Inverse folding.
């Protein structure tokens, strides 16, 4: 199997090249600054839900009740509050939030309550009066939009109160009245369990998770890809390349460079992961301390399984792209030309990146499934499918296998370009020149 | 068995860089690869190293094709010097040694030994960029030999070195040869070649124009050089023992000898070419017949510089000198002294 020796021949030299590359990279100040920067961003993102709750996004709604009714058997504020909380609880099952969602307080001064609604101290003012026909008339003063969930719930609770009042006036005994309002047995069975997840709470965090991963992937490819290209051009520029190319084969140099930078990228990924983990732990502690109660929030969908596969696709996708960047870097000998030569690769990455935003919304569409196996697109698509959909085991295997094929194919082409490119000085890097380098002999 | 370069040709697009280059180098010898700029020396070296592949022809070392040989067979000092500027000297040396399969500990010991020998042990932990060019070159030479290669290929190893370092490098060459290594180098400094090389090949525009053991090459030129200095009876020394007034046509007697051409009229001595048919001793007899005292009479082979100029052409060598002069202080001072000579005349 002589044909496969070029793969086994990669080591140990690729390792030595990678080790040098990794040490140089991770010891640089730029790397330290960038790593700390994105770790802080990771930490901030995980603490964001807590921050939102602290600022008030998660506070219960406070609604003032002004009633001029005298002949009512129940206290309107208490009854409305109970029915509002009952219906909101059944609506948002398992949201993990604690305590009542609605607090209704009786008021005797509607004018000052209106002022408080205007200045956001109250979420609404509900005024109750007797209409001429004897029914209860409701007047709801708030900033809620006509389609808001709170308005709908308040309307529903008010309706119940009005009906109860009618029943009471019609002489229906209290026990029968209770039965009339008992909840009905109603179970919704989804036709498509995966699609149904979209309507659950879990979808939103998963969606964010997929988006964050796609952005992270794209950024890593851009940043490290350009680093790799620049470092190849730098080696050409400082002429150390001549010595390198006589000591190791182009494939060893290329793959080593990619591995070294890949390891540096993975280091950053792990640092962000640790920062995020610290964030989650802190968030639990902080919310206990600041908000009281069992406020520990977990992001549903973030499991070791998902993070592990993210890591796998992150590394393989990264290697797939950076191999090409290294080949591109070998075509130029000046730093100024690196951007220009890496341009087409940026578009390739950008294509996968933008498409994946379309894909996230229609994750089970046929084209998304197909593209999630295509090398250079799969690193963006497949991880999104893992969190948003439910790929079969063989799909994991196929996507990963094709990514590896993409890596080996890329390595083969890139090594040929690299072998020719590193000895080219002062020539314009054209498509033709690259093609010639790929098909012709060194 | 030797290093055999067999009819290699290589074109870059429309440019034919090498056109059937052949030569062979005996193991354990020092071999000079000469040629004007752009003659094809670097391309030849790269093909020998299997960095480039020839369009046709083959390179073998001890009967094995170069593509089949492990890379550690070769040590290479490229013409364009370059190391990782921001790495420590010892780390760079260890890195290259590792690529050639040398364990770290061995590489460290060997590197320290060579740094000592090149009288720069204090550079061990300095960054490469802090070193002068000449010292970087020494580091690069060490990088090329740390893995103990069988064949050492060096492109312009002496360029940019001061005389002290040239001497150190020459000593290193001889030591490598004594260890049984084969050394191939290119240079524009012919005195280096004459001093070190047993055999040479001169390449011009991608073709071999002269090749073989240095002595044979010189013999093939078909002539000898005679250097002559004479002293007049009154003790005044001069090139050919001639009074100032007689100068110019005073050397006419030499040119009258058949097969003899005057090539240098110096104050210290005169130099002449003697065609292969003519007898150099006839010059000595003619000089003695004039009654002057002969203080120097030397029969020699033509210098390599002459051979080079004759084979490659005057224009090329002038170009060489011009280019080399811009690069090297050493050549600059040589040009200065040449100007002084002109002024003296």
């Amino acid at each position: 199997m002589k044909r496969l020796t070029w793969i086994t021949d990669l080591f140990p030299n690729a390792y030595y090249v990678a080790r040098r590359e990794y040490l140089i990279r991770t010891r640089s100040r730029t790397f330290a600054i960038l790593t700390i920067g994105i770790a802080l961003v990771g930490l901030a993102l995980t603490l964001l839900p807590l921050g939102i709750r602290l600022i008030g996004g998660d506070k219960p709604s406070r609604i003032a009740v002004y009633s001029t009714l005298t002949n009512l058997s129940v206290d309107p504020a208490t009854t409305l509050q109970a029915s509002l909380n009952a219906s909101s609880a059944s609506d948002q099952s398992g949201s993990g939030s604690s305590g009542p969602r609605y607090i209704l307080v009786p008021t005797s001064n509607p004018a000052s309550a209106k002022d408080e609604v205007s200045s956001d101290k109250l979420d609404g003012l509900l005024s109750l009066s007797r209409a001429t026909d004897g029914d209860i008339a409701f007047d709801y003063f708030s900033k809620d939009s006509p389609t808001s969930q709170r308005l709908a719930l308040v309307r529903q609770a008010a309706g119940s109160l009005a009906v109860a009042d009618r029943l009471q006036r019609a002489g229906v005994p209290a026990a029968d009245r209770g039965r009339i309002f008992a909840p009905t047995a109603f179970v919704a069975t989804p036709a498509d369990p995966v699609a149904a997840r979209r309507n659950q709470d879990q979808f939103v965090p998963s969606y964010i998770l997929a988006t964050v991963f796609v952005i992270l992937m794209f950024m890593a490819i851009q940043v490290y890809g350009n680093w790799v290209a620049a470092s190849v051009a730098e080696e050409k520029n400082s002429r150390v390349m001549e010595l390198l190319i006589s000591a190791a084969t182009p494939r060893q140099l290329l793959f080593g460079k990619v591995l070294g930078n890949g390891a540096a990228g993975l280091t950053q990924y792990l640092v962000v992961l640790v920062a995020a983990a610290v964030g989650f732990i802190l968030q639990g502690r902080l919310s206990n301390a600041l908000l009281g109660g069992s406020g520990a929030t977990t992001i549903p969908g973030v499991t070791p399984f998902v993070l592990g596969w993210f890591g796998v696709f992150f590394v393989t996708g990264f290697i797939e792209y950076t191999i090409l960047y290294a080949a591109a870097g070998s075509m130029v000998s000046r730093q100024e030309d690196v951007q220009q030569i890496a341009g087409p690769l940026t578009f390739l990455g950008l294509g996968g990146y933008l498409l994946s935003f379309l894909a996230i919304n229609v994750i089970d569409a046929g084209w998304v499934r197909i593209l999630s196996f295509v090398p250079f697109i799969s690193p963006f698509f497949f991880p999104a499918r893992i969190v948003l959909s439910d790929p079969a085991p063989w799909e994991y295997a196929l996507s990963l296998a094709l990514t590896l094929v993409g890596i080996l194919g890329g390595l083969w082409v890139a090594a040929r370009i690299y072998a020719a490119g590193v000895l080219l000085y002062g020539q314009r890097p054209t498509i033709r020149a690259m093609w010639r380098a790929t098909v012709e002999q060194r | 068995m030797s290093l055999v370069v067999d009819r290699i040709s290589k074109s870059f697009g429309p440019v034919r860089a090498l056109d059937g280059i052949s030569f062979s180098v005996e193991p354990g010898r020092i071999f000079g690869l000469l040629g004007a700029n752009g003659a094809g020396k670097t391309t030849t070296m790269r093909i020998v190293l299997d960095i480039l592949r020839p369009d046709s022809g083959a390179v073998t070392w001890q009967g094995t094709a170069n593509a089949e040989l492990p890379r550690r067979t070769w040590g290479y000092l490229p013409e364009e010097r370059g190391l990782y500027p921001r790495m420590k000297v010892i780390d760079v040396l260890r890195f290259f040694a590792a690529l050639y399969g040398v364990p770290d500990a061995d590489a460290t010991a060997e590197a320290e030994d060579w740094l000592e020998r090149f009288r720069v042990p204090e550079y061990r932990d300095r960054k490469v960029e802090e070193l002068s060019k000449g010292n970087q070159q020494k580091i690069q030479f060490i990088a090329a030999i740390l893995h103990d290669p069988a064949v050492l290929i060096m492109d312009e190893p002496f360029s940019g070195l001061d005389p002290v370092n040239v001497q150190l490098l020459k000593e290193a060459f001889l030591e490598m040869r004594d260890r049984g290594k084969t050394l191939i180098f290119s240079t524009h400094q012919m005195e280096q070649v004459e001093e070190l090389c047993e055999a040479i090949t001169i390449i011009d525009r991608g073709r071999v124009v002269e090749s073989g053991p240095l002595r044979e090459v010189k013999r093939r030129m078909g002539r000898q050089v005679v250097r002559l200095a004479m002293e007049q009876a009154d003790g005044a020394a001069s090139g050919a023992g001639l009074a100032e007034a007689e100068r110019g046509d005073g050397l006419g007697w030499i040119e009258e000898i058949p097969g003899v051409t005057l090539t240098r009229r110096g104050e210290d001595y005169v130099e002449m070419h003697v065609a292969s048919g003519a007898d150099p001793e006839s010059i000595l007899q003619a000089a003695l017949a004039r009654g002057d005292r002969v203080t120097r009479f030397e029969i020699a082979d033509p210098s390599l510089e002459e051979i080079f100029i004759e084979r490659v052409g005057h224009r090329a060598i002038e170009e060489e000198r011009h280019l080399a002069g811009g690069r090297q202080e050493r050549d600059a001072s040589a040009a200065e002294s040449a100007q002084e000579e002109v002024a003296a005349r």
Remarks:
- The CA atoms of residues 1 and 63 of chain B lie 7 Å apart.
- The first strand of chain B starts at residue 3 and ends at 12.
- Chain B has two domains: 3-218, 222-300.
